[in-house]
User: Fold this.
Amino acid sequence: MLSSDIINHPSSSSEPFTCGENGINSKRKRRPAGTPDPDAEVVSLSPKTLLESDRYVCEICNQGFQRDQNLQMHRRRHKVPWKLLKRETPVVRKRVFVCPEPSCLHHDPCHALGDLVGIKKHFRRKHSNQKQWVCEKCSKGYAVQSDYKAHLKTCGTRGHSCDCGRVFSSYH
Assistant:
């Protein structure tokens, strides 16, 4: 379940929320899949930004940095006291990220991804030809490092071969 599928039910009492469809009691109400959060800010980043490896982005000018310390030093250049900036900021709206590729399902705000890391991984996997990580055993390439690391755990391990011709990762 994605965090974008859940909304908190605003209630002044401590009574749990009862779903009108199935009668389940909960303090949270689950949003049906494909239903966007109406309060979320929809963010569309350029393909170039999605392929950059910067994890820390300045909220004022959108410049990216690989280390949090560099972002902190950069913020000082804006000459806005960071504590004051945080205090003046109203309630932070949830952000959802859409894919910049018009033909992609995730281009639609109804199917937006809930975090920056998610949209970056999606864009690298589905819309980029850059395969930075290549397996030395089988030469298969990966655009996302976590996919490559998961592959390394199983590559070259044949597991158990059944008489029917299927191969299983373990034998019980």
